[in-house]
Amino acid sequence: MFHRLGVERRRVDTIHRGAAVAHRLEAAVELGSAELDRKLRSICGIGPWTSAEVRRVALGDPDAVSVGDYHIPHAVAWNLAGEARADDARMLQLLEPFLGHRARVVRLIEVGGRPAPRRGSRMPLRAIARQ
Fold it and tell me: By residue range, what is the domain housing residue 41?
C-alpha cells in the first residue's frame, strides 16, 4: 500500500517500528522533549531531523532544531548573518542567542525571511502555450 503512495520500503519499515512502540512514545511525551528525543532516536531509521520535526510539531517544542536539513542552515545564515551558505554547525552557532526558542526563530525565518541565494544554473523558460 505504501509503495503506491511513493514511500519506499526503508521508510515503511521505520513507520512500522515506530508504530510498534507508539505506546512508549506517547508515555515519553509526559516526560518532556529530551526523553521523547532519546526514545525516538532509539528507533532504527529515526535520526535527529525526524526527532526534531516530531517534537516541534507534536509537542510544540520551541527549541527543536531540524539538524540535517538541506535548506534550513542556508536560510538561517542568510537571514541572521548575510551568509549565503552554512552547515548545521554554523546554523546552531547563529541560533545560540535564541536558545530555548530556536525552533520559533527558524519558523519565523521560513515564513517571513528572505530566501538564501540559489546556486544552481538557471534553466531557460519554456513556452508551454504552444505545446
Answer: 3-58
Per-residue confidence in pLDDT tens, the chain, 131 aa: 777 888 889 999 999 999 999 999 888 888 888 999 999 999 999 999 999 999 999 889 999 999 999 899 999 999 999 999 999 999 999 999 999 999 999 999 999 999 888 877 777 777 766 55
Whether residue 67 lies inside any domain: the answer is no
* Residue 121 lies inside a defined structural domain of this protein: no
- First-last CA distance in the chain: 35
Q: Are 86 and 71 in contact (CB under 8 A)?
A: no
Residues 50 and 76 in one domain: no
DSSP state of 46: -
Q: How many helices (H) and strands (E) does the chain have?
A: 7, 0
| Residues 21, 45 share a domain | yes
